[in-house]
Amino acid sequence: MRALLSVYDKRGVVDLACGLHELGWELVSSGGTARALAEAGLPVRTVAEVTGSPEMLGHRVVTLHPKIHGGILADRDDPEHVADLEANGITPIDLVVVNLYPFATDPSVELIDIGGPAMVRAAAKNHAHVGVVVDPADYSVVLAELRRHGRLSDATRRRLARAAFAHTAAYDAAIVAWFDGGDLLPPTLHLALERTGGELRYGENPHQRGARYRRMGERSWWDDVVQHSGLALSYLNLVDADAAWRLVHDLAPLGDQPAVAIVKHANPCGVAVAADLPTAYQRAYECDERSAFGGIVALNRTVDLATAARMVAAAQADVVIAPGYEPGVVDALRGKRKNTRVLEAPPPVPEPRQLRQIGGGFLVQDAHRFDAGRDQWRVVTKAVPTEEQWRDAELAWRICGHVTSNAIVLVRGGQAVGIGAGQQNRVDAGRIAAAKAAGRAGGGACASDAFYPFPDGVEAAAEAGVAVVIQPGGSVRDDEVIAAADERGLAMVFTGERHFLH
What is the dihedral of CA 149, 152, 155, 161, to 10 degrees? Predict the structure, then answer.
């Protein structure tokens, strides 16, 4: 039995080779892998010895030879193939252990591997007779099966072949992405994803299956999340926690201050900033106490015992996500809320693009971001916001970008007091926000994710008692809307930037 070993990731390869040698296998290798095996005292034949041809073109041509690929691709059940091997003095290769350079980490033309993918694909194609291993995690499995049965089962070879084609597909996808040079909308997109862990308990509903995937060979910030307690994360836990975590971090440009966001069904139902974390949590919770039950709580500071006490006394949270927890906090949360998932997470990593599935394909766009800041906004009314009103307007605007359209957000004193989300018309969204505010918006700010098409939206904001309205502007009736604001003594700010979210 003959094994060909040529790997970039050399973790465990010497142990694998030792096990194969003990089982009587012949070892063939090249380059750094051959040196590593020889230094371990293992008898190893170089590829050049097998082929009778030297490595050439600066290591570009090593394994591209009939004595290698013939040995890999031969169908041992085909008499003509067997005759070809005998006529050309080719020894069959029974196991190919190859993995490729992680191209995306340091891309260049010289790191576009040719021989490696060719061997992997050849072995995977001929998996009826050849085992192919591209992941060091499979070494122990392969060795155990060889020791137990003397050969790899059909099922194992098939599983390994699938993994091999996935490995080369991800490698080629990384090369294509490098050629695209960061182009957001290239002619083709190639997604190579791997499942993280097993299936989730279910998808959005119990009759749907679900799982989390990430780009092959890359870690997501989600992979560094530590769950300290609670039930296993569900599909919707992941969706909502992701939304909450991104929102609370999206408030950072407004100043380095404690912030809390509470999200329910991917929409914020409470957001606040304050001088300390317990106050920020309490004010976020008080925005909409009923909706906060079963929500996701995201905090941008290490959670202390005082904040934990507030949380335990308030509504049951499905998930708490924060950068850390002081000693005793996890136990305090676990003691009263055994099912609450308590997560410690790194900052979210911005995605360059967003994909959304539609029938027969995908829509692709830039990831959501706030391009225009206060220095680019325009006050279009006679009244001008005070500094406190500016702060409320900025906070309302940031929150509004994370609320499903049509969206209206009311903020007063650094606290969201009313959020109207996902309505078919803007007036209804405003009325819902005002009803939830219940008179708490007086002197605060109202944010609208898109322009007001009619003055009635401004009238609803005025009825809620706000002092400033912030919106993109751009309606053909902007003059009427501005006049309505002037008539009621409101300040109005145009951002020139819409933030629809669907």
Answer: 170
pTM value?
A: 0.89
What is the helix (H) or strand (E) element at residue 485, kind and residue range?
helix 478-487
Q: Model confidence at 334, in pLDDT bands (50, 70, 90)?
A: confident
Q: Tens of pLDDT along 446-489?
A: 999 999 999 999 999 999 999 999 999 999 999 999 999 999 99
265 a catalytic residue? yes
Name the catalytic one among 10, 190, 228, 265.
Answer: 265
Query: Whole-angstrom Cα distance, residue 402 to residue 410?
Result: 14
User: How many whole angstroms separate alpha carbon 373 and alpha carbon 401?
Assistant: 13
Q: Is 76 exposed, middle or buried (0-12, 13-18, 19+ CB in 10 A)?
A: middle
Q: Which domain holds residue 255?
A: 225-344
Query: Could you give the number of structural domains in the chain?
Result: 3
Helix or strand or coil: residue 270? strand
Catalytic residue from among 10, 125, 228, 249: 125
> Does the active-site annotation cover 127?
no
My answer on whether 303 and 429 are in the same domain is no
In a domain, 207, yes or no: no
Per-residue pLDDT tens digits for 263-316: 999 999 999 999 999 999 999 999 999 999 999 999 999 999 999 999 999 988
